[in-house]
Design brief:
The structure is a single chain. By secondary structure, the protein is of the alpha/beta class. The protein has nine helices and eight strands. The chain has helices at 14-29, 44-56, 62-80, 86-112, 117-141, 168-181, 209-220, 253-261, 272-277, and strands at 2-6, 34-38, 146-149, 186-190, 193-195, 201-203, 224-229, 282-286. The strands form two sheets. Strands 3-4-2-1-7-8 form a six-stranded parallel beta sheet, with helices on both faces. Strand 5 and strand 6 form a beta hairpin. Helix 2 packs parallel to helix 4. The two termini are 19 Å apart. The relative contact order is 0.15. It binds adenosine-5'-diphosphate (ADP), aspartic acid and magnesium ion. Aspartic acid is lined by residues 7-8, 39-40, 45, 127, 191-192, 206-210.
C-alpha cells in the first residue's frame, strides 16, 4: 500500500484534478494499491482565515468572498462531473450543505466580533473537507471505487487548536480499523484535520496535510508515502528563489528534517518522524511532471 498526498497546487483547478486522476489510473494499471490524502484547493486555507478575520471585524465584505469561494467549488463540480451522474448530485448536495453551515458559523463570528483558535480550526477544516469530497466523487465517476474519509473520525489529537498534538495510539487504532473495513475501495482522506476526544475539530499546523499522509502511512506500515506537489523533489534551495537549484536524488531522514526545519516548505517538518519511526520512504513527486523519478 502506498499513501499519495496531493497538495494545494495539485488540486488547484479542475484541470489539475483531472491530471492527478489520470496519474491514479496509471498507478492502478500498474497494479499499485494506494490511498490518497488531499489538501484544500490552492489558497483556500488562506481565504478561509481571511473570511473569519473579516467576519470578526464586522467587515461585510466577507459575504462576497464567501460567495466567490462557494462558486469556485460549485464550478469544480460542474467541470468534473455531469448533472446526470449520481456523483454530481452527491457532490452538489454535500458541498451546498457545507457552505450553508460555514455561512452560519461566519455569521456567528460576525455577531460576536470574536474568533477563537477553536472556531478558526473549524472554519479552515472546510477547505480539506470540500476538496477531498469533490475529488472523491470525481474519482468515483472516472471508474475508481472510492470511499471518503473525513480524517476527524480517525486522527485523534489534543485540544491545542492551530497545531494539535496527535494521539498516535488512538489514531493508529482508528486508522487501521477504518482501512480494514474498506479493503476493496480507494480511501480518499482529508489532510490537515483531526479531532479531540470530545469531537472538536483541530488542525495539525499549516502545511499539515503532509503530516496526515505520514500518520496514515505509519499506521498502515505503507511501502512509501508520496508527497505530490509542484516541484521535482527536494531541491538544493527553494526554486522560486534560486533559479539554479537542482534536485537532490535522496537524503536521510535527518537531512530531510534539517532542511524542512530550515524552511524547505516542500515538506512539513513533523511529517518526517512517523515515517522515520517505521522506516517508510518519503518520496516527493511532481504532479506537473509525473515522469520525473
Ligand atoms: P503543496 O501545496 O503541494 O503542499 P507547498 O507550497 O507546501 O506545496 O510546497 C512546495 C513548494 O516548496 C515548492 O513550490 C517550492 O517553492 C517550495 N520549496 C521550498 N524549499 C524547497 C526545496 N528545498 N526543494 C523543493 N521545494 C522547495
Ligand atoms: N491546507 C492546509 C494549509 O494550507 C494544509 C496543507 O496544505 O498541507 O496549510
Ligand atoms: Mg505543503
Amino acid at each position: 500500500m502506498l499513501v499519495l498526498k496531493f497538495g494545494g497546487t495539485s488540486v488547484g483547478t479542475p484541470a489539475t484534478i483531472q491530471s492527478l486522476i489520470r496519474i491514479l489510473h496509471d498507478y492502478r494499471t500498474q497494479g499499485k494499491s494506494f490511498t490518497v490524502v488531499f489538501s484544500a484547493f490552492s489558497k483556500v486555507t488562506d481565504t478561509l482565515i481571511e473570511l473569519a478575520r473579516q467576519a470578526e471585524q464586522g467587515d461585510a465584505g466577507w459575504h462576497h468572498a464567501f460567495e466567490r469561494l462557494q462558486t469556485r467549488h460549485l464550478e469544480a463540480i460542474e467541470t468534473l462531473l455531469k448533472p446526470d451522474m449520481p456523483e454530481y448530485t452527491a457532490a452538489r448536495h454535500h458541498i451546498s450543505e457545507n457552505f450553508e453551515s460555514l455561512r452560519n458559523i461566519l455569521h456567528g463570528i460576525s455577531l460576536l466580533h470574536e474568533v477563537s483558535a477553536r472556531s478558526l480550526d473549524f472554519v479552515v477544516s472546510f477547505g480539506e473537507r470540500n476538496a477531498a469530497f469533490i475529488i472523491a466523487q470525481a474519482m468515483s465517476a472516472s471508474g475508481l471505487a472510492t470511499v471518503f474519509l473525513d480524517a476527524r473520525t480517525v486522527i485523534r489529537t489534543d485540544a491545542h487548536f492551530g497545531s494539535a498534538k496527535v494521539d498516535f495510539e488512538e489514531s493508529n487504532r482508528r486508522i487501521q480499523g477504518f482501512y480494514k473495513e474498506h479493503q476493496n475501495e480507494i480511501v480518499v482522506a482529508t489532510g490537515f484535520i483531526g479531532s479531540t476526544a470530545e469531537g472538536l475539530t483541530t488542525t495539525l499546523g499549516r502545511g499539515g496535510s503532509d503530516y496526515t499522509a505520514a500518520i496514515i502511512g505509519a499506521a498502515l506500515q505503507a511501502e512509501a508515502v508520496e508527497i505530490w506537489t509542484d516541484v521535482d523533489g527536494v531541491l538544493t534551495a527553494d526554486p522560486r528563489k534560486v533559479k539554479q537549484a537542482f534536485t537532490l536524488p535522496s537524503m536521510t531522514y535527518r537531512e530531510a528534517m534539517e532542511m524542512s526545519h530550515f524552511g524547505a516548505k516542500v515538506i512539513y517538518p513533523p511529517t518526517i518522524q512517523p515515517a522515520y519511526a517505521k522506516n517508510i520512504p518519503l518520496v516527493i513527486k511532481n504532479t506537473f511532471n509525473p515522469a520525473f523519478q
